[in-house]
């Protein structure tokens, strides 16, 4: 019976704080899908923790989520996920000069994406074009969600590097 009570307590905690915690994580990692993954990880860690020794479960849950987002940022710094931010910046730049080059850049990015290895290309297209979640992509391709994240980061790194390389000669003019 205590396990059932604990399950109800976790369910209630999840229902009460899911949206605010998701918003918190989304602000920290700047990616709703990653935030959803971290939110799930936070509740899994909470579920496996020694909750009887915790006074404020909400605060403890936020601490877990904060630590997960810090770990995520550290991993991505090493892997170069800031490339996604660089790519987003390049794609949102609407200056006339940039617009004139956009067609060539899009053609270049299309060739670059076509040249990615199969699983990486598929993950990229499903995530960015189809707007599928990591979990759905993982199920569809028979991968682990972390593998989906790695493939997406690899694709974004290649696209951002190519976009930055294509941009540099234009800036010199």
From TrEMBL:
A Pfam family recorded for this sequence: Sigma70_r4_2
Domain of life: Bacteria
Annotated keywords: Sigma factor, Transcription, Transcription regulation
All residue ranges annotated as the RNA polymerase sigma factor 70 region 4 type domain in the record: 109-159
Keyword Metal-binding: no
Protein family according to the UniProt entry: Belongs to the sigma-70 factor family. ECF subfamily.
NCBIfam families the UniProt entry points to: sigma70-ECF (TIGR02937)
Name of the protein in its database record: RNA polymerase RpoE-like sigma-24 subunit
Organism for this UniProt entry: Pseudomonas putida
Source organism phylogeny: Bacteria, Pseudomonadati, Pseudomonadota, Gammaproteobacteria, Pseudomonadales
